[in-house]
Design the sequence.
C-alpha cells in the first residue's frame, strides 16, 4: 500500500472535514425530531386521587366510569367499594359498604343512574348516585343460564332507550338483552372462537349509533354487533382487551396487554405489558400508549404495592376519559386507580447552569 504524502493527507483531511461540516449544517437545518410534537404523550398525576384516611385502599379496582360532571366513579373490592372523586382528586362520597361480594364493573347511564356488575352475587344492579337500589337483574346469590339467572356477569351496556345488554362472561359465554323494565328479550353467543362466539366476554359498551363492542378478552378480540346480535366486525391480534369505554365522539378506548395465548404450556400468562389503545368505530387504530409493568412481588393475590411507582400498573382492568381528555385507569393487582394527563408540549429542558441546552 502506498503511503500518503503530507499534502495528500492534508487534502484528504480537508475534504473529510468539509463533508462533515456540510453534513452537520444539513442536520442542524433538518433535525431528527418534530418542531411541534405529532404524538400525544401521557404523564401520570401522582397526586390523584386524594384518598381520605378513613377510606379503604385495599382491594382490586375493577370498575371505573366518569359521569357528565367529570366526577370519577371507582368500583373496587374492600371496605369502601364505591368511591367518587373530582378530576382534581378531591373526595366526593363513598357508599356500598357490605353490599357486594365480587365487584367487577361500573357504568353510568344517560339518566345518571349507576349500574354495577357483581360476579360473586351473579347480579347486575342499578342504583341512584346516592346508593339507593332501583333495579336488579339476575337472582342474588344464584347462578344459572336461563332468562332470569346469570353465571358471574362481567359488565353491562345501557342504551339511551334503556335497553340493557349484559356480558354474562365468567361462567356463561353470552350476551343477554333486557328491555328497560328488566324483561328478558334475547341472547346470543356460546363458547367458541367463531365470529359471534366468545371465549370470555369481559366488557361491553354501546356507541351513539347503537353498535355494541364486546371485549372477548381471552381470545384477544373485540367483536362488534348490532342490537340483534349480528356480527358487524371483528378486531383481532391487536390487544388482549380487558376494559372498554367510549367517548362522546365515538372513540373506543381499550386497556389491556399486547396479544398472547391465554394458555401456554399449562400456564396462564395474563399479561406481559400494560397497553392503552384508541380505536375509531371502524376498527382503525388511532392511538397507542404503554406504561411500565410494575413489581408487586410473586403473589398477585397478596400484592406488595409498596414496590409500585406512579405510572406503573399490574392488571389494568378498566378505562375512561373526562372532558379534558385525561385517562383514568383502574387496576386489579396493583389495587389502585390512576389519572394520566395528555401532553402535547413541554418546557425545554434546563441544564444545571440554568440554561437551555444548545
Sequence:
Amino acid at each position: 500500500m502506498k503511503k500518503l504524502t503530507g499534502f495528500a493527507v492534508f487534502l484528504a483531511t480537508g475534504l473529510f472535514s468539509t463533508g462533515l461540516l456540510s453534513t452537520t449544517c444539513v442536520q442542524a437545518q433538518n433535525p431528527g425530531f418534530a418542531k411541534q410534537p405529532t404524538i400525544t404523550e401521557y404523564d401520570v398525576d401522582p397526586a390523584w386521587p386524594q384518598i381520605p384516611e378513613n377510606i379503604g385502599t385495599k382491594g382490586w379496582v375493577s370498575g371505573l366510569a366518569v359521569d357528565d360532571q367529570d366526577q370519577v366513579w371507582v368500583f373496587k373490592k374492600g371496605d369502601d367499594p364505591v368511591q367518587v372523586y373530582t378530576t382534581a382528586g378531591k373526595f366526593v362520597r363513598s357508599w356500598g359498604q357490605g353490599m357486594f361480594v365480587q365487584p367487577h364493573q361500573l357504568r353510568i347511564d344517560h339518566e345518571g343512574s349507576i349500574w354495577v356488575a357483581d360476579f360473586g352475587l351473579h347480579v347486575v344492579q342499578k342504583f341512584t348516585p346516592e346508593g339507593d337500589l332501583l333495579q336488579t337483574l339476575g337472582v342474588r346469590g344464584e347462578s344459572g343460564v336461563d332468562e332470569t339467572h346469570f353465571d358471574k356477569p362481567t359488565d353491562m351496556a345501557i342504551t339511551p332507550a334503556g335497553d340493557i345488554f349484559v356480558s354474562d362472561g365468567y361462567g356463561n359465554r353470552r350476551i343477554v338483552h333486557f328491555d328497560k323494565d328488566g324483561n328478558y328479550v334475547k341472547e346470543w353467543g356460546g363458547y367458541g372462537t367463531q365470529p359471534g362466539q366468545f371465549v370470555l366476554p369481559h366488557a361491553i359498551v354501546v356507541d351513539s349509533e347503537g353498535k355494541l363492542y364486546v371485549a372477548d378478552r381471552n381470545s384477544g378480540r373485540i367483536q362488534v354487533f348490532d342490537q340483534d346480535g349480528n356480527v358487524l366486525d371483528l378486531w383481532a391480534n391487536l390487544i388482549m382487551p380487558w376494559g372498554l369505554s367510549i367517548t362522546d365522539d365515538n372513540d373506543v378506548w381499550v386497556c389491556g396487554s399486547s396479544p398472547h395465548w391465554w394458555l401456554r404450556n399449562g400456564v396462564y400468562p395474563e399479561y406481559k405489558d400494560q397497553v392503552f389503545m384508541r380505536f375509531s368505530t371502524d376498527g382503525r387504530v388511532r392511538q397507542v400508549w404503554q406504561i411500565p409493568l410494575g413489581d408487586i412481588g410473586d403473589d398477585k393475590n397478596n400484592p406488595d404495592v409498596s414496590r409500585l411507582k406512579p405510572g406503573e400498573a399490574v392488571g389494568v382492568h378498566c378505562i375512561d376519559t373526562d372532558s379534558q381528555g385525561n385517562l383514568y385507569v383502574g387496576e386489579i393487582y396493583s389495587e389502585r386507580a390512576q389519572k394520566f394527563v395528555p401532553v402535547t408540549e413541554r418546557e425545554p429542558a434546563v441544564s444545571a447552569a440554568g440554561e437551555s441546552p444548545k
In short: Confidence is low (pLDDT under 50) at residues 9-13. The domain at 41-343 is CATH 2.120.10.30 (Neuraminidase). The first strand starts at residue 41 and ends at 44.
